[in-house]
Amino acid sequence: xxxxxxxxxxxxxxxxxxxxxxxxxxxxxxxxxxxxxxxxxxxxxxxxxxxxxxxxxxxxxxxxxxxxxxxxxxxxxxxxxxxxxxxxxxxxxxxxxxxxxxxxxxxxxxxxxxxxxxxxxxxxxxxxxxxxxxxxxxxxxxxxxxxxxxxxxxxxxxxxxxxxxxxxxxxxxxxxxxxxxxxxxxxxxxxxxxxxxxxxxxxxxxxxxxxxxxxxxxxxxxxxxxxxxxxxxxxxxxxxxxxxxxxxxxxxxxxxxxxxxxxxxxxxxxxxxxxxxxxxxxxxxxxxxxxxxxxxxxxxxxxxxxxxxxxxxxxxxxxxxxxxxxxxxxxxxxxxxxxxxxxxxxxxxx
Length: 350
Ligand code: NAD
Fold this sequence. Notes:
This protein is α/β, with parallel strands linked by helices. The chain has two domains: 4-128, 3-Layer(aba) Sandwich (Rossmann fold), CATH 3.40.50.10860; 150-290 and 318-338, NAD(P)-binding Rossmann-like Domain (Rossmann fold, 3-Layer(aba) Sandwich). The protein is built from 13 helices and twelve strands. The strands form three sheets. Strands 1, 2, 3, 4, 5 and 6 form a six-stranded mixed sheet that branches. Helix 1 crosses helix 13 and helix 4 packs across helix 5 (186-197). The protein starts with 14 loop residues before the first strand and ends with a helix. Nicotinamide-adenine-dinucleotide (NAD) binds at residues 149-150, 153, 182-188, 205-208, 211, 226, 240-243, 262-264, 290, 293. Keywords: Oxidoreductase.
């Protein structure tokens, strides 16, 4: 019989809680990958899975990802994640959310939850009525930290992108450089504004035409067909829309020397990190460069500082990237593999 410990995605997880509340129909998996650096922090996903094994696998994989992300962002937090197993209609009741919140509370702060796919800010507010161990609650207008993560993520991506430009092209600013941005959503918009302020030449693409037109009008960017944006000739390509866009096929067609974007899980497989390296394309590991949002929300939860600390932590992103690229050059391993190894060391493993 397969056990949890023999699953391919089991990675020394400290605890995996299988939560059941029969009266409300709640079924959830709370995976705590590591509490080495602090409470296991990571959002709750509400999703219909084909089977229980897929739900457990998702919780194992995502919680490990949170350990790595929080560690590399220099946060005093470990990594965890919850998946709530929704039925086919994704029925979510207040009673079910309350039962889930009580389960989080029983873990005594060793796990801290937040919003993820399928959950809303309203759900987080409801959870906060039963437990203090929830982050990402709405903040008052003008609050120093917390609130919309997009601008903070974009600032981290912008600073990381500039670090990549400095390393690859030896330039201290983006003046005249061509930046191709996939997406015109929350992060992409703020990123495009930062780049336009430094007189970069922008190309942008989004399947939502109204959004891309508005952003182009504001920043002077050229609109590109979404099918072409990754492959146009550009100094930097910044994926800020979808995951798994860097594949054997797409990497072969890239016309850039730098990939620096916000999207999660950009590499379709681990080999794609090596493929980028083989083509001499400098890669900014996604969970390192896109940590600005989590830095902001965590600083609000931890109450360990204000806007200055958020800024300081985001400004450490380029330093972290430089460490990764230095180690990559020294070891010959690709930056994504180096980032994982570095994260493992930070959480006392590896
Ligand atoms: P968003 O939903 O605001 O924007 C995403 C945009 O991508 C949308 O405008 C959508 O129309 C567009 N899009 C979808 N398919 C596309 C395609 N094929 N080609 C071009 N555009 C396409 O999301 P966001 O908050 O800006 O996040 C962007 C990415 O960054 C996501 O992958 C997200 O997971 C990741 N991320 C975001 C944050 C954050 O703070 N918001 C933090 C970390 C990672």
